[in-house]
């Protein structure tokens, strides 16, 4: 029986993957019933071959291959659709998220939280990334009244019922903390170890970060006045 599903969007990460899969195995070795779902998002390097080889060594590793790049959010949604676990874990595949830190997040889930997000208290990213991220988090706090510290962190643990309720179309999943909180779920952020990038290049530039700010303002308009949140199905559910 699968209890934990770890979902990994992969885009040109062939050098990171062997270490990453090994580290996830170490992080989960004391837990029974887990799987890894790696979604190859049209990688142009050796990621598909590396994933196929790793899956032959790691029976918990399942693969989804996109012929062309569809983006991180589409990759995550594809993973959610096939995930069998009651607990869903997401992280990036570039080794900056430390898999061993998942135990901190899962401890909070065991204490009654529905969505737990990793807070990169000390970030090993460029100065402009850190500045824009800080600005976005402060803007979210002002607009939502919630003191979020790292809204855009990819390292998260969800109970399945949270993912069943929050919007997942487009890039709205990046605001899962906002939506889950608005819908009455119990959420928190936990400080986690963030590591310097060892391989490859960041896929996020200034334009994408500005798009996050733009998306955030649009999302907050959903919360203004009516107290309602639009969901994937087109229904409106009043916040608890």
Automatic annotation (TrEMBL):
The protein's matches in InterPro entries, at most eight in alphabetical order, are given as: Glyco_trans_2-like, Glycosyltransferase_2, Nucleotide-diphossugar_trans
Sequence intervals crossing the membrane: 212-231
Q: Keywords on this record?
A: Cell membrane, Glycosyltransferase, Lipopolysaccharide biosynthesis, Membrane, Transferase, Transmembrane, Transmembrane helix
Question: Mind listing the GO biological process terms from this record?
Answer: lipopolysaccharide biosynthetic process
| GO cellular component terms, A-Z | plasma membrane
- Out of the domains of life, which is the source? Bacteria
Extract the Pfam families matched here: Glycos_transf_2
Q: Which residues form the Glycosyltransferase 2-like domain?
A: 5-165
The protein's GO terms of the molecular function aspect are: undecaprenyl-phosphate 4-deoxy-4-formamido-L-arabinose transferase activity
Record-linked Gene3D superfamilies: Spore Coat Polysaccharide Biosynthesis Protein SpsA, Chain A
Kindly provide the name given to this protein in its UniProt entry. Glycosyltransferase 2-like domain-containing protein
Organism annotation? Candidatus Daviesbacteria bacterium RIFCSPLOWO2_01_FULL_39_12
């Amino acid at each position: 029986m699968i209890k934990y599903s770890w979902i990994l969007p992969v885009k040109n990460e062939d050098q990171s993957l062997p270490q990453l899969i090994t580290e996830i195995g170490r992080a989960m070795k004391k837990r029974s019933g887990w799987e890894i779902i790696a979604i190859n998002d049209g990688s142009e390097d050796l990621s598909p071959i590396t994933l196929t080889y790793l899956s032959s060594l790691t029976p918990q590793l399942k693969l989804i291959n996109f012929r062309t790049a569809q983006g991180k959010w589409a990759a995550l949604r594809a993973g959610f659709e096939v995930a069998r676990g009651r607990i869903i874990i997401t992280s990036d595949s570039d080794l900056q998220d430390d898999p061993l830190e998942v135990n901190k997040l899962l401890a909070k889930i065991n204490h009654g939280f529905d969505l737990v997000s990793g807070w990169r208290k000390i970030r090993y990213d460029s100065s402009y990334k850190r500045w824009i991220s800080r600005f976005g988090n402060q803007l979210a706090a002002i607009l939502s009244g919630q003191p979020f510290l790292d809204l855009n962190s990819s390292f998260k643990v969800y109970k399945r019922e949270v993912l069943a309720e929050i919007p997942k179309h487009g890039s709205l999943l990046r605001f899962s903390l906002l939506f889950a909180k608005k819908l009455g779920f119990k959420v928190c952020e936990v400080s986690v170890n963030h590591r310097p990038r060892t391989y490859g290049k960041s896929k996020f530039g200034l334009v994408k970060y500005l798009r996050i700010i733009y998306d955030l303002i649009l999302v907050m308009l959903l919360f203004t006045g009516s107290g309602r949140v639009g969901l994937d199905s087109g229904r409106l559910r009043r916040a608890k």
